[in-house]
Amino acid sequence: MRSIVRKILDHYFRDVINKINDLEESVSVLANSPLYVPDPEFEFNGVQGRKQIFADLLSEGGVKTIIETGTYLENTSGYMATTSGLQVLTCEKNRKLYSLAKMRLKNIHLVKLFNMDSRTLLRDLSKDKSVTESECFFYLDAHWDKELPLKEEIQIIASCWDKFIIMIDDFKVPDDDGYVHDSYGTLEYINMPALKSKYNLSCYFPTMQSTEEPTPSTGCVVLAKDDNYGRRLHNSKSLRLYCG
């Protein structure tokens, strides 16, 4: 009983803290940066290794469309669009954050912003063959609210897209406790053996150690099918294959 009560309280306080953080960030952005400008502190959460992974994927020429879930204040959306020159489709469920992101992105025409739940966006896009038949990079970061859509996001992508690479923010990096991660961000949470069995997925982690990052950083994981398209990641210097 005590553990159940604790989980309920943690769930409640997480929501309250997140709302306070959203408010503080929104006020700060409105005052200091009402339009998007590059800022290394916020793009990909300021994680240098993650930027290198993204750069390596672009240099290999295997990405045609970028899809992001969880726009938040659009720093990463703007960075991915301006760095890649590719269209970025991104969604933000929170109406206030969506409006703020839309204002900041008004000069970045490569970004198309949706005010909806991430699973709804992915299901809608899955009906468009021009999107599902394109080589897509997915950046999943829509797990800030009480509800965590991560499992369903992965299931929709893996069952509807043929050529894709998924990057998930806030994830535990095995053998490197210096990377910060949220409670959902573990291989146990996404059940990697089941994903490997059902969708033939492989799992990769950054080669850059947390001690090489300039500040304490959030970890990430990269998922791709174990096929000719996905196996290109085996040769990436910024990623290492997870064999656990």
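(the above was protein one; protein two follows)
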Amino acid sequence: MTGVRPKQLNIDTTFPLKVYTVAELPAAALFSNGAHLFVTDEVGGAIPAFSDGTNWLRVTDRAVVS
């Protein structure tokens, strides 16, 4: 579509992430790709993670949460 500009989305709020331990993590397949959560006891410390539809991956290096 020529000449059509996408609308800009401005969000001035935070989105709290659900918090889990590694043992409590739900199956990533139950969530859509890109869903985010926070893991409190991941190797190396607490970290945000996202679903790829199969696994929970650490945001920092995309390694599988273990």
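Reviewer note on protein two: Residues 19-58 form one domain.
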